[in-house]
Amino acid sequence: MKRIKLVQCMLVFALVLSMSSMVVLAQDVQITILNSKGEIQTQLEEIAAYYSSITDGVSIEVISAPVGQSPFERAVALYASGNAPAILMLDAGDVLLFQDRALALNDEKWVADAIDNSLDMATAEDGRILAFPVTVEGFGFIYNKPVLDKAVGGEFDPATINTIDSLRQLFDAIDDSGKGALVISPEDWSLGAHFFSLAYSAQSPDFNTINEFLEGLKNGTVSLADNGAANGLLDTFDLMKEYNYDRLDPLASTYDRGTELIGEGEVGIWFMGNWAWPEIADFDTTGGQFGFLPVPISNDPADLGNTQIPVGVTKYFILDGEQNSSAQQQAAKDFLNWLVYDPEGQKRFVVDANIIPAFSNITIAPADPLSASLLDYVREGRTMNFILNLPPDHWAQVGASMQKYLSNFINRDAFFKEVETYWQGL
Amino acid sequence: MLATEKRFIDKLKTYLLFAGPTTFVFLTVIILPFLFGIYLTFTNWDGISKTYTFVRLSNYITVFKDRMFWSSFMLTVKYVFYTVVIVNTLGFILAYALTGNNVIGQNFLRTGFFIPNLIGGIILGLVWRFIFSNVLVFIGRNLNIGFLSYSWLANPDKAFWTLVIVSVWQYSGYMMIIFIAGLSNIPRELIEAATIDGANGFHRLRSIVLPLMVPSFIVTVFLTIQRGFMVYDVNLALTGGGPFKSTELISMHVYEKAFLAQQYGVGQSQAFFLFLLVAAISITQVYFSKKLEVEA
């Protein structure tokens, strides 16, 4: 008797549960965003909460892929579990891998307003536009202006740094002023995907020529040891190693430590990109006086790279067209339009989350100093290609080789050999 | 004839009643994915696209030619060797010490040694990461102890030993519990008889306790070997494979091949190869150590 009662209770309970979930389904559209920019997780959550509050029945949840983990891994796992988010933020190079599953977005209004070339990596061979350009980013030497002002004894002029020698003088001056010249964060993604990619960017202002260079690496016809830009970049890296704040234990340093040291002005320079601003801001003691310097690769100021920094669209949103209902897909499209065209959406996306948008109709810009500095470079035309079509494990493999070089585990010849072996093994 | 048939149906009914749900789950969650995984080793799937082509055995050939795979494999063998030896030795010593009659706070100590096993590998890795790269370095630099002044995690050789140290810390307590269970099953009269015959502590340990503990050792060695080959969480959270991939154990290598390098077929082939190898090692180990068992 007792057992039957228990079974009855459970049945009733299950019925109530399923009914209540049906009620929820009938009213609400719930969508999920996979965020792979960990530094803006809070801001995105706030945007999602705000958007949920102003719309009728649409609610957005933000899930994250941690900094340093590939968003591809996370996206694949979510797809395999039948749980794909409506909107997925992917690295530029991974977008086309999802072409069987992503929605075509050619009919969206924002396509016309996207800036030149920003949709190149989002367009499939058959002409379908598969992704929404999220953000323009760039990297170089971030400098703390008060520290450098003190070191040079007056107003620091970033234009004076355009050769390896002038960089050395600057390092010396900062060192003499009692601060650390710079700190190198030894993360493989920073060294592999960003720092060493400068050697590719500096080959040519023309993207196709760079691609030919990369093809040459693949089939073994290019020798890095004979390449001027690659050697010049490592000359600069040797200089950085010499003045590295953490030179005693270079691999024990971290990204977080970098944000702290540069923010508090313990060091004058840190190699990183504008995405680091929200974290630097936590330690900022200068009232926001930061900017970018190019990473010089030779002693001729006219060489490409000595006065340019790489800028590109690094992150894209794709919309899932497979595991989300059409109502959810529509809600996702509406949300993207809201980000681009609604003044409140623009403000929250651009200013609050420090995103440099890839849309020409958006006239506001992020208020942070790093984005402002980056935009100055863009305005002056002092940019070069940010190489984003590297093979998926390039950052991990070349990053590991860079770490070996950083900790003097291998010399330059061995380093070049490892990078060439990696490319030829693809 | 009829009787046997009926008996079979009865048996099947009973089996389905008791083990049916488990069998179903086992089939769908373990066996089917396993078979599908083997099927994928013959394709060039990247993990996400809907189309792929058959490449026959080329993934397996890639595995055999992949030098990173083999160096990672040898590193794992080295890691398994050291953890198995140290964990079992230490676990046994702890168990032997804590089953004597004159230990104060026996239960408290047993609990203490067992607790690390209750902490998840990721948290454990992060805690020890902090200890190795901050606490020990801080102590080393302030007291001028040379070998502690630099983070162990930044040095390829020492980073390997941090993995061993943390694994030993994690598993010794667990193995200790198994050994304690084994020790308390040894008939007291055997020990007493040996004592009367004039055997000292060392003789009793070597000639009576150890032979009778063989069943426990089979279990613990099996567990440590299997866990050693499969370790991922501590590896990920403690060293992350670094510095520069020098401590990337085999599970991590397989995972990165499949999901990071987007070569799912190759990663899956490596995983299948690893399965065969671990199965072979474990079966051999159990088979041969069974022969060492004695009756009291």
Structure, described:
The complex is a heterodimer of chains A (426) and B (296). By secondary structure, chain A is an alpha/beta fold. Chain A has 2 domains: 197 residues, Periplasmic binding protein-like II (D-Maltodextrin-Binding Protein, domain 2, 3-Layer(aba) Sandwich); 219 residues, D-Maltodextrin-Binding Protein, domain 2 (3-Layer(aba) Sandwich), CATH 3.40.190.10. Helices cover 45% and strands 15% of the residues of chain A. The longest helix of chain A has 26 residues. About 1% of the residues of chain A have low confidence. Chain B has a single domain, classed as MetI-like fold. The radius of gyration of chain B is 24 Å and the shape is flat. With 296 residues, chain B is mainly alpha-helical. Chains A and B meet through helix 3 and helix 16 of A and helix 11 of B.
